Structures are given as structure tokens and as C-alpha cells.
Amino acid sequence: MGLSFGYGPALDDRSAIALIREAFAGGVTFFDTAEAYGPFANEELLAEALAPMRDEVVIATKFGFEDGDSKAGMDSRPERIRAVAVASLERLKTDRIDLFYQHRVDPNVPMEEVAGTVKDLIRVGKVRHFGLSEASVPSIRRVHAVEPVAALQSEYSLWWREPEAEVLPTCEELGIGFVPFSPLGKGFLTGKIDENTSFAKDDFRNVVLRFSGTDRARVAAGAEAVDRADPRHHQAAPPEGEPRRRRPRADRSRPEPDRGRAGRPVSRCRGIAIPRTSRHESAGERSRATKGSRFRLWRVNAHANSRPKGFPESQCRAGLGTDRITRSERLAICQHWQPDGRETTATPHTGNREAQPPSVVARLGCMGMSYHRSFIPEPKVSISLIRKAVDMGVTFFDTAEAYGPYANEVLVGQALGPVRKDVVLCTKFGFDIQNGQLAGLNSKPSQIRAVVERSLASLKTDHIDLLYQHRVDPAVPMEDVAGTVKDLIAEGKVRHFGLSEANAQSIRKAHAVQPVTALQSEYSLMTRRPENDVIKVCEELGIGFVPYSPLSRAFLTGFLNQNTRYNASNDNRPTLPRYQPDAIKANWVMIEALSEFGNPRGLTPAQVALAWLLAQKPWIVPIPGTTKLAHLQENVWSADFELTAEELRGFTEAVSRIVIVGERYTGTQAQQTNR
Questions:
Q1: Strand pairing report for 437-441 and 431-434
Q2: C-alpha distances out from residue 180 to 163, 306, 438, 589, Å
Q3: Closest-CA residue to 587 (of 561, 614, 554)
Q4: Per-residue pLDDT at 434
Q5: Disulfide-capable partner of 35 in 68, 130, 207, 427 (CB 3.0 to 4.6 Å)?
Q6: What pLDDT shows up at residue 356?
Q7: For residue 134, what is the DSSP state?
């Protein structure tokens, strides 16, 4: 629905088709639409996207509104149902509707007549299965007595649990599948909506009482429930405590996330399949089917390569069959370590063919899995995430002894051990660690060597692909630092040398002794200081630039707001001026700019921010970090969007007018940068 209707401006067709085909490629086989969505436009969009794989998917649509307009009133007269079926078949470019819902119960038409009409459509093969939406228990039973109901679609989520009282038990009793719509609370349960969120004029949430500024703030803050002032708008209280598990109904309850963003990965929405009954099967045979077999929803494996025969992956992904090469394939810093991407026969600066790292499709910063991001996931969760990242094409992993300390290197080493030869490992030295705490800087040659030996053991490897100096140590000449790393490279323990948060003078000093492969410094739409000097120096010297915190410590995702709470014992953001409530409110204009640009293109704010960075120079390659699979996939997919020159120019001009409030660092942390 949200691709065409109800959630602000419609997504452009190209992006919407790409999203639908990406969903299919990820294993999604159940697609929901309705004539009222648009109206009509959503069905037409779905038809174009799914035409090549029509026989491999289930399409559900709906009837029930007058002239397809949800504002014009209900109309489920038999002649209207038949007319909608014919029109939907034409718009969907198909010869049958797999699941035909009554969108809302029409009090002016007996349910027996509605069920009888759909039963006739099933008999002639135009419809496969019958469903209801937002129907009460009496309506469900009346319909089910005439034509078995395959599925009930109703709102159900953590903040609207009314179906648990009567509807879900009835579905379980009668063997009816339950399909929750708005399982994410119309976007609220994503955590990206607060009292400051503004909706487009044509967004229906403007008229939903729960999304009014006052009520939204109370719900967001966990206050008492808002009154259920209007039953049409589902004014229920948010649930208290841990939601109970629903194992007995797990096989029949399938949520339908309604998101219009390519950044919300389909891998978490496994496919939904309907056992196909022969269109020649008699109505009597269908009626005699055992409970639960008429329409059974079950999980199927989501294969990344599941697409119809003869249907190129590029079409699934790009939506229009273009054969373009993704930016992530072109912008790999580790492919040849050349800022201009020229082919080389040996690794730059070393001349060592054996030392040439593999190409990189995407990159992952691993710090947040162990350090400075409030909570620490269980190791098995992070290991699984890292290994899934490898499966998705990520081959560049960034860690440091300071992250934990030590814990992050151990975690990364354990996760990547089985694929060590296929990935690039980057770590760092430069801090003095005492009693598990960072106690200042230390880049003495003896310390560098000690760190490397410990890192090799933690990472379970015999070499470090890229070794950074974490921060410039003013007490140790840069020439001594570079010379020590040069010796480690000669010994085969290190492949490449990098710096972090170094200024132009330090870069030149180090580069004169041991060519610097990469500079890692903070760079994002919120922090653009590197544009003043160090990026120019990198371009001059042929040094790759690796922005850390490319999403400004999650601010550019749109998930942080002035109400966000941090675990101060394991999060540096509460100490940073830019993450104070007043600064976040002042800087929210950046999120609005990202959303304004990304919404019509099907991109999240984070994807726009990363795509902007990737568009700066082909040798600028950010390392976004995450602890969640959904965000990992979102970040990886950002490399598939390439801004045109006009888009880049216009967007850059717009965000350049935004004045950022709050420094990124203060005190010692600020003193350790740009020197």
C-alpha cells in the first residue's frame, strides 16, 4: 500500500518496482494490494513488477469501497464485487486472484450474499481463496458457513492487541489464517516517529488520533494510554510489559510490514505460500478440505538467488533490467588501493604482488558490537551478523585493540576465522591501555610491536591487512611510527599502513617514510572538516580515505531524537555536545532534508547519507557500523544508488546551507584529532 497510497507522496515507479523485485529475490512470495490503494495505481504497479514471476507468487487484493475510493463509502453489492474482480484482473495482468478480501464489512449487504458472490467467482476460476478484513466474529462465522474463509486481515501489533480477545481464537477454531496489517504500528514501532515528526499532507496518519503530537509524545514516553476516542482510528493503549508468545498460532499469523523503503530488508520477512488448488477442482472438494488446509501459511526458506528462470538478477534488483555496475563494485578501496581505480599489476607502494588484498564490495565497522554503543549484543549474535555480512559481499572489516578493549578483536577473529583468506582485516594501535581503560596515547615502537603481536593472536591470523595509528602521538616522532610499521610490513606481519584523524602535515611525514594506504577520519554530512585539507592531500598522494561514523553515530539514520536514552557506562554520545537534546532538535533539519530527498526515491535517510559520501570521490569508502541485520542490509544497499551529477549538486547545495549545532568532540578527544 505504502508504495502508492496513504503514507505521503508515492514512490516513483522505478524505485517501487525495484523494491518489489528485491523482495522476491529475497524470498518474499506473498504480495498484498487493493483497488483502493491509489486508487488503482497500486495494483497496476504490482502487476508490472511481478509479471515475470507471476506463477511463483501469491497476489492478494481487495474489494469493498464505492468506486475504489475509501472515502466514498462501502459497496459490497454482488454486481460491484464482480466488477471489481474483473477490473483487478485486468490491472494485475493475471487470470486469477489468489486471495480476494472484502476490505471492510458492508452493513448494507448481508454477509451471506458477499460470500455467495465470491464463491461463484472461485467456481469459475477468477478467484482462488476468500478473505475478510477487520471483520467481527459474527461476520466471520456467517461468511465461513457459506464459503470457507481462507484468511482474515486485521490490524495487530504490540500497540493494538484487540484481536487476541476473540478474533484470533475464532481463526484458530475455524482454521483461518490471520494476516496482521500495520504490524509496525503504522511506522511508530520502528522508533523513528516522535512528537516532532511531521507527515505529508496526504499521509493518513494526520487524522489518526494516536499520531497527534500530544498523544504521540505520551506513547513515546511510555505514559498512560491515550483514550480510545475514535474506534475507526484504533485508539488503544500500548501494551504493558513483555508481550506473550503465541506459539500455537505461529503457523497461521503472518504480518505484512508496509514499508516503502528499500532499506528495510526482505530477509526478515520470509515468504508466504498458498498450496495451489487446481482451478478445475470442484467447490465441493474445496469445502471438504480439512481445517487449516484451505489456506495454510507457512515459512519457506528465503534464498537470495530465488528468481524465475530467465529473469536476470539485474532486473530483480534494478527494476528496469539495466545492466549497470553497482557503485559498491566500482568503489572498492582494497581492490588496488588506487584513488583513481587504475588497474595495477602490483600493490601500490609495496610492489608486493602477494600482498594485494582482495576486492571489496562493502565494509563493516565492528566497534559498536563491543564498545561505546550502549548495549553489547551477545557474542553469538554479533558473530552471526559478521558472517551474514560476508554472505552479503562484505569483505572489509574494521576493529581496534581499544574497542572493548581487546574484546572486539577477539570477536572479529572468531567470526572471520573460517573465511580469513577472503576478507580484509583492519585494526589499530596507539592507545595506552591500563587496567582495561584507555590511559592516554602510546605509539612508541616497542608498544606498536606489542600491540601487533596481541592483535595477531586476538584476530587468529598471521598478518594484518591494514594497520592504522589510531591517534597521532605528539610524544613520538611520526617518522619513528612509520619506520616501525615499515619494518612490520617487511616482516610480513602487516600488509598496509594507515593513519586516523591525522592532519596534512602528519600525513606527509608518515608518507615520506612508509607510503600511507588509507586515512581514516570522521566524515559525514554532519562533519565535513576533512574537505578543507586532508581529502585534498589524500588525492594528491594517492591515499584512500575511509570515513568512520559516516552516519554520525546513528543520528543520520533518523532513529535518534531528544528522548533517546543511552547507557552512559558504555556510550560516549552523552558526553558529546552534538547529542544533547537541544542540539538534536536544532539539527533535525538535516533528517528532514535526507527524508525529503530519499522518500520519492525509496531511500532511507541513512542510505541517502551513505550514497552522498560514495558520490564524493571513487576512493572515499565509508565504514558504517551496526549491530542489527536490518541496518546492515540497508547500509549495503545504499551502494546500489548512484546520484546523478544534478542530484548531487542540488542536494549538496541544500545541506550545505544547514548550520550544524554542537561540536563532535570536546576536551581530550578533540585535542587528539587533526594533529
A1: antiparallel
A2: 9, 25, 49, 34
A3: 561
A4: 93
A5: 68
A6: 35
A7: S
**What domains does the chain contain, in order, with CATH numbers?**
13-185+250-301 (3.20.20.100), 327-671 (3.20.20.100)
Identify whether 445 is preceded by a cis peptide bond (ω within 30 of 0): no
User: Closest Cα to residue 438, out of 406, 469, 462?
Assistant: 406
Q: Tell me the three cell numbers of residue 340.
A: 583513481
Contact 513, 484 (CB under 8 A): no
pLDDT value at position 563? 86
194/189 Cα distance (integer angstroms): 10
Cell matching residue 545 = 580515505
Question: What pLDDT shows up at residue 214?
Answer: 59
DSSP H or E stretch at residue 213: helix 213-220
Angle, vertex CA 334, rays to CA 333 and CA 338, nearest 5: 60
With beta carbons less than 8 A apart as the criterion, state whether 618 and 340 touch: yes
Task: Give the start-end residues of each E strand in 566-642.
Answer: none
- Taking the CA atoms of the chain, what radius of gyration do you get in angstroms? 28
At residue 632, the pLDDT reads 95
C-alpha cell at 643: 546520484
Q: Kindly write down the DSSP assignment for every residue of 329-383, as one continuous string.
A: HH--HHHH--TT----SS-TTT--GGGPPPP-SEEEE-GGGTSSBS----HHHHH
Write down the catalytic residue from 371, 403, 468, 523.
403
Q: Are 156 and 183 in contact (CB under 8 A)?
A: yes
Active site residue 403: yes
| Best CA proximity match to 94, nearest among 181, 25, 33, 8 | 33
Classify the C-alpha dihedral 644-396-521-594 as positive or negative.
positive
Per the DSSP assignment, residues forming a β-bridge with 280 are none
The helix/strand count (H/E) of the chain reads as: 22, 17
Q: What is residue 274's predicted lDDT score, i.e. its pLDDT?
A: 43
pLDDT of 359 reads 33
Distance CA 444, CA 441 (A): 9
The pLDDT value recorded for residue 122 is 97
In this prediction, residue 230 carries a pLDDT of 34
Contacts of 450 (CB under 8 A, 6+ apart): none
Is 415 strand, coil or helix? helix
Determine contact, residues 545/518, Cβ cutoff 8 Å.
yes
Residue pair 675/472 in contact (Cβ under 8 Å)? The answer is: yes
Contact 414, 425 (CB under 8 A): no
Pick out the chain residues at pLDDT < 70. 213-361
Helix (H) or strand (E) holding 609: helix 605-614
Half-sphere exposure of 74 (CA within 13 A, CB side): 14
* DSSP state string for 298-337: -EE---TT---TT--HHHHHHSS---PPPHHHH--HHHH-
Q: Which residues lie below 8 Å from residue 563, measured CB to CB, with a gap of 6+?
A: 194, 220, 221, 581
